[in-house]
Specification:
Blueprint lengths: L1 E5 L5 H9 L6 E5 L2 H9 L5 E8 L3 E2 L1 H9 L3 E9 L3 E4 L10 E4 L1 H6 L1 H7 L2 E4 L3 H11 L4 E5 L1 H6 L3 E4 L9 E8 L10 E7 L7 H11 L4 E8 L7 E7 L6 H12 L3 E8 L1 E3 L2
Parallel strand pairs: 1-2, 1-3, 5-16, 7-8, 7-9
Antiparallel strand pairs: 3-4, 3-11, 5-11, 6-9, 6-10, 12-14, 12-15, 13-14
Helix pairs in contact: 2-3
The structure holds prephenic acid (PRE).
Pfam family, one: PDT
GO molecular function, one term: prephenate dehydratase activity
Organism: Fictibacillus solisalsi
């Protein structure tokens, strides 16, 4: 079995992948960016992929949502991972000498207040670990990376400042995706994409009312542009039942009678890591 995740070694994605698929014999497919992970599964280079979709501080990771759709993937699992971020530099780096902080944008965003307090520039990388690796290679004392303690150890960096994220209960949710549109038997949630038939006043509330009328709890709601014109949105809704529950079929049928396009993007249960 081949599993794709965001590399290099030392990313949070690697930790999530190794802990989620721990009991299986895996051929790991390490990718350079989050969209590449989803593309690898879409193109059949890997059977499964794992990608971050939401963070407790920063919210939705849009590149994952968009790549899920482009590659026509199915969400068959979910992993919730605690995330602690540190400012990492080469030996002897002092906080007051730092001019630039490097990392993947969602990680920089989780530490926005701290980075603003440093009054430094930021530079975007494709992962926390690739930023940490670049700091080691640069061998400079005026730049630092935002990454995990594990990445710091791996690349021989020291913690210039610990736990710089904006919450002590920081977590990131990853989706486990595959091409095969089959829900696991124990699925407890279903992710739906709803593309409204038209833009009219109250369209979102009419969609949400379908779920409340059926007493189906929604655990996540996200709107994304349809990318067709400014102001035209599609909605991602996570319902609190697996797709095998007849209430999901009912909700989909009612939404379709209103003329909305509804796609089931996956059905899964959560794995919470500590
Ligand atoms: O760069 C990494 O280490 C990743 O696995 C990506 C990622 C993300 O994009 O959200 C995953 C978890 C953390 O929120 C920070 C970074």
């Amino acid at each position: 079995m081949k599993v794709a995740y965001l590399g290099p070694h030392g990313t949070f994605s690697e930790e999530a992948a190794h802990r989620y698929f721990k009991d299986e014999h895996i051929d790991w497919h390490i990718c350079d960016s989050v969209p590449e992970v989803l593309e690898a599964v879409g193109d059949g280079l890997a059977d499964w992929g794992i990608a971050p979709i939401e963070n407790a501080i920063e919210g939705t990771i849009n590149m994952t949502v968009d790549s899920l759709l482009v590659n026509d993937l199915y969400i068959a699992g979910e992993v919730i991972l605690p995330v602690s971020l540190h400012l990492l530099g080469t030996e002897g780096t002092k906080e007051e000498d730092i001019q630039e902080v490097w990392s993947i944008p969602p990680a920089l965003a989780q530490c926005r207040e701290y980075i603003r307090s440093l009054k430094v520039k930021t530079r975007h990388f494709d992962s926390t670990a690739s930023a940490a690796e670049a700091i080691r290679e640069a061998g400079r004392n005026d730049v630092a990376a935002v990454a995990s303690a594990y990445a710091g150890d791996l690349f021989g960096l020291v913690k210039v400042r610990r736990n710089i994220e904006e919450s002590y209960e920081n977590q990131t949710r990853f989706v486990v995706v595959t091409k095969d549109k089959k829900a696991p038997a124990d699925a407890k949630k279903t992710m739906l994409q709803v593309i409204p038939s038209d833009e009219y006043t109250g369209v979102l509330s009419s969609i949400l009312n379908v779920f409340s009328a059926l007493n189906v709890n929604l655990t996540w709601i996200e709107s994304r542009p349809t990318k067709k014109k400014l102001g035209a949105y599609q909605f991602f809704l996570e319902a609190g039942y697996g797709v095998q529950n007849p209430l999901i079929d009912k909700a989909v049928a009612v939404l379709q009678t209103y003329g909305h396009e509804v796609n089931i993007l996956g059905s899964f249960s959560a794995t919470k890591l500590d």
